[in-house]
Design a protein that fits this description.
The chain is mainly β. About 5% of the residues lie in helices and about 50% in strands. Strands 5, 10, 11, 12, 13, 15, 16, 17, 18, 19, 20, 21 and 23 form a 13-stranded antiparallel β-sheet that branches. A hairpin with a 4-residue loop joins strand 18 and strand 19. The longest helix has 7 residues. It is globular, with a radius of gyration of 18 Å. The N and C termini lie far apart (about 40 Å).
Length: about 290
């Protein structure tokens, strides 16, 4: 494939680049001159290896759902697997071509391929106050019947980074997610800034304000991640690839199962024409006396 178009947005202290043809995803996020995302040298890598680079929109569901035939209302879902564990992961729009709808706005129409509801998804990006990135996402049900729905944002923050997730409860596994969350403990108690253990892959609820803090000690940069939606779940993972994922989402893993079994954290049922919104804000600041080894 040819090298994709790269749109660059910047302020005095923030520079980010977006690839409209590959999921309208963030390819690079540079703050105070430091790269904070896991960014491939060749942007075409996002198309061939879409799950572990940059930052991307998840819709119309997040994380893992089961493949095969599942009836929801009058329609049958029959999703193919797109991941090595046999699941259908992260929705349908993470690497699809989006169209530009404004200076920093993007949208896509989706549905089909086992998902029997048409929908639209949008992303609007803004840089405010020189050191703040705001991402506004929408998901709209374009069908004439209710549609299960979830949206999220999936950034990969490059190491070395410490993280604090301010939540009292956790679903300890995203691959075999329990019906209800339990109290945080051990390596899943991330209420203070610390290095996330390799192998972590879990979901935290409910969150306080701010739900997430990040610190890049060698870069001397700190950030808060806040999110607004009808419900917020913070998914975080450290697969040992040189970055951690910290993802605001509107539902817990296995969202279809949760919806059908009336478990907490399921996908939301959107009425025809209804819109699900998610706003994510990353605010950055320099350490007073950074260690810039």
């Amino acid at each position: 494939m040819s090298v994709p178009e790269e749109l660059v947005y910047s302020s005095a202290h923030v520079e980010l680049s977006v690839l409209p043809s590959i999921g309208a995803r963030l390819h690079r996020l540079r703050v105070y001159g430091q790269d904070l995302l896991r960014t491939p040298a060749d942007p075409r890598t996002h198309a061939f290896d879409p799950f572990c680079w940059g930052g991307y929109v998840m819709a119309p569901w997040c994380n893992r759902v089961a493949t095969g035939r599942l009836r929801v209302g009058n329609r049958v879902i029959d999703l193919p697997s797109n991941f090595s564990d046999g699941s259908a992961i992260h929705g349908q729009v993470y690497a699809a071509p989006w169209r530009q709808t404004g200076e920093a706005g993007f949208s896509i129409y989706g549905g089909g391929d086992g998902w029997p509801w048409p929908y639209s998804s949008s992303l609007t990006i803004a840089i405010a106050d020189d050191n703040e990135v705001r991402l506004d996402q929408t998901l709209t049900n374009l069908a004439d019947e209710p549609m299960p729905a979830g949206v999220g944002f999936h950034p990969w923050f490059r190491d070395p980074v410490t993280v604090a997730i301010h939540a009292e409860l956790v679903y300890g596994s995203n691959t075999d997610s329990p019906p209800i969350p339990g109290p945080v403990s051990g390596s899943l108690d991330l209420r203070e800034l610390q290095t996330m253990a390799i192998g972590t892959d879990a979901t935290w609820v409910p969150t306080s304000d701010p739900p997430v803090q990040l610190h890049w000690p060698t870069a001397g940069i700190r950030a808060t991640l806040t999110a607004a939606a009808p419900a917020i779940h913070i998914v975080a993972a450290n697969p040992g690839n040189g970055a951690i994922a910290v993802e605001p989402q509107t539902h817990a893993p296995q969202g279809l199962r949760r919806l059908l079994h009336h478990e907490p954290g399921g996908l939301q049922l959107l009425d025809p024409g209804q819109v699900l919104n998610l706003t994510t804000v990353l605010a950055f600041q320099l350490d007073p006396r950074p260690d810039r080894r």
